[in-house]
Amino acid sequence: MSLWECVAVFAAGIGAGTINTIVGSGTLLTFPVLLAFGLPPVTANVSNTLGLVPGSLSGAFGYRRELSGQRTRILRFGAAGLIGGLGGAILLLALPSTAFDTVIPILIAVALVLVVLQPKLAAALRARRARNNTTAPRDGGPLLLLGLMLASVYGGYFGAAQGVIYLSLMGLLLTDDLQRLNALKNVLAALVNGIAAVFFLFVARFDWTAVLLIAVGSALGGQIGATVGRRLPPIALRAVIVLVGLAAIAQLLLK
């Protein structure tokens, strides 16, 4: 890479780390930049996944205060995330690069609808449980666990708007503050990216220069994202999620 290409990749890494910590979809910044500089799609995807691991860890550390009291969730959801992330990484190398092209925009669109409607849907679920004198399943029950595992398969495969899908599922099935759910989302993203990265280190081709530039940039962006993200009120955070998700859909459909 030339000097200016290195600067562009580093800047994209900062942006990706920031956006991933606040919402998700940072891949939509770094992946197109790597493609523009001549990396093959699979190599670019693998390099991007490896580079974003430090950013995910940085974002999770930045949100450590909101993780207090969520140890059981981290262990439970993290196990599902590791299994799903490894499955997605295997699929990336086994399936053609266009395999998910049709499904991904629809998946993100459904997640955005859930994010927008989440307060009303959650209130309706609580009212229904009150009428039926039932309680919510502990930590979202098997439905949430299965949903997070499937979302992690997608995360290990590509990961654009992975955080949007996590937040939509947890926001609907868990009764908790959106910032605390966002902190949990960052841990899940770190685990999924991490397990996929370990797998790719041994079986896939990647560009070390791109990996290092994105790694340093995303780690810095993770701290920026944690500082900005925790200051956003729920309605503003929800608006950011929707805007980023719509941008993701537009980019995927127009590529």
TrEMBL record:
One GO term describing the cellular component: plasma membrane
Taxonomy, superkingdom: Bacteria
Annotated InterPro entries: TM_pro_TauE-like (IPR002781), TSUP (IPR052017)
UniProt entry keywords in alphabetical sequence: Cell membrane, Membrane, Transmembrane, Transmembrane helix, Transport
Cellular location(s): Cell membrane
Membrane topology, record value: Multi-pass membrane protein
Membrane-crossing segments per the record: 7-34, 46-63, 75-96, 102-122, 143-167, 187-204, 211-229, 235-254
Pfam family, one: TauE
UniProt similarity note: Belongs to the 4-toluene sulfonate uptake permease (TSUP) (TC 2.A.102) family.
Protein name: Probable membrane transporter protein
